[in-house]
Amino acid sequence: QVQLVESGGGLVQAGDSLRLSCAASGRTFSYYPMGWFRQTPGKEREFIASISPSGGRTDYADSVKGRFTISRDNAKSAVALQMNSLKPEDTAVYYCAADKNYSYNLRSSHSYDYWGQGTQVTVSS
Fold first, then answer.
1. What is the per-residue DSSP string for 67-114?
2. Where does residue 41 rank: exposed (0-12), middle (13-18), buried (19+ CB within 10 A)?
3. Tens digits of per-residue pLDDT, 92-101?
């Protein structure tokens, strides 16, 4: 079992930046594709970004492309999400997730096996 813990959320104003971090337990972190998702009450969990085990390939949702950057540091067993030019629409609980089976479609929440508890990001106008 892998445990994931997100941190770095908070309250910011539109246009500000925020960096989220996700710390993972276990020695197999470097083999897992990782993803970031977000969710608001009453809505489905939304794909934000994913990154390959080596960090060489990344994918972003259209809503955040050009503003958010996903990265990982396998030596520290951590993945990060740098969020720039934040908008009120970005307000949500953000989750990091790990895929132990290396699924093909990393945009689907169903591809991930381990999830963190989430961190709240609130963007005011």
1. TEEEEEEGGGTEEEEEE-S--GGG-EEEEEEE-TT--S-TTSGGG--E
2. exposed
3. 999 999 999 9
**pLDDT tens-digit readout, 7-30:** 999 999 999 999 999 999 977 899
One-letter amino acid of 53: P
Phi-psi region of 28 (alpha: psi -120 to 50; beta: other; left: phi over 0): alpha
The residues facing 114 across adjacent strands are 98
Which residues neighbour 71 within 8 Å (Cβ) at sequence distance 6 or greater?
51, 55, 79, 80, 82
Distance CA 113, CA 95 (A): 13
